[in-house]
Design goal:
binds zinc ion; 5 helices
């Protein structure tokens, strides 16, 4: 393949810009914020599940408390009703009186037991409500941290995308200076190895860092200036410059 030496040199500008573009793409893919956001999102999701479980437990206890309080009420109402009957003086038989009094004693004891149950449920409920509040606060804190990391990621993306657009704009200007067949070869090599062209500097290919043999150097030296030469080692296009050591 033949190409004017000036067009070949433009390949080096193109390769430099392509490496800038590659670095930007790599930076965009590997921003530390991305891993941070994933980790925070997973923790927020775990906490959200824990909050739901704690809320369910607190809700169950709230219903248990309502039921226990209603048990207390019904026992209290029965005791009050018995007490009224006793106070009204309508019950005169000693046997009935004794039975009524004994029922009142037993209802009072029962009410006191049930009130203990209510207190015990209230304590558990308080602990459950506290757990809900603690987990929800932790979840909100992590969600805020995730939001902040997302903001930092977006700001970095804006910066990277701006640099990328600039590099692509400059690239478009360079591509116009390179003949189509040479550009196609460059793109093909770039696809294969990441870099399409490298400078020959001091007898070394800067693409693969290999020092060329005397025979290869002599062959390149003998080749016409517009001949497109390749590195025998990495197959990249070797661009000759005054620093090539030929
Ligand atoms: Zn090479």
């Amino acid at each position: 393949m033949k190409a004017a030496p000036a067009a070949q040199k433009r390949l080096l500008d193109l390769a430099e810009l392509d490496s800038v573009i590659d670095r930007l793409a790599h930076r965009r893919r590997t921003l530390p914020e991305l891993a941070e956001i994933d980790e925070l999102a997973a923790r927020v999701a775990r906490l959200a599940t824990q909050v739901i479980a704690a809320e369910t437990e607190a809700g169950d206890l709230a219903r248990e408390q309502v039921k226990a309080e209603s048990d207390v009420d019904s026992v209290r109402i029965r005791a009050e009703r018995d007490q009224k009957r006793l106070d009204s003086g309508q019950v005169s038989s000693p046997k009935d009186l004794a039975s009524l009094q004994s029922e009142i004693v037993s209802l009072t004891r029962r009410q006191s037991d049930l009130e203990e149950v209510v207190l015990e449920i209230m304590e558990r409920r308080e602990a459950a409500d506290g757990q809900v509040a603690k987990l929800a606060a932790e979840r909100d804190e992590l969600a805020a941290a995730r939001g902040a990391a997302e903001d930092r990621r977006d700001a970095a993306f804006v910066e990277i995308d701006k640099e990328n657009a600039e590099a692509k704009g400059r690239r478009a200007g360079i591509v116009g200076d390179i003949p189509a067949d040479l550009l196609a070869l460059y793109e093909k090599l770039r696809e294969q190895s990441g870099v399409g062209a490298a400078m020959l500097q001091g007898g070394r290919c800067l693409g693969c860092r290999t020092s060329l043999s005397i025979a290869d150097l002599n062959r390149i030296k003998a080749a016409p200036h517009d001949e497109v030469v390749r590195c025998e080692e990495c197959r990249r296009i070797l661009v000759r410059t005054p620093e090539s050591g030929l």
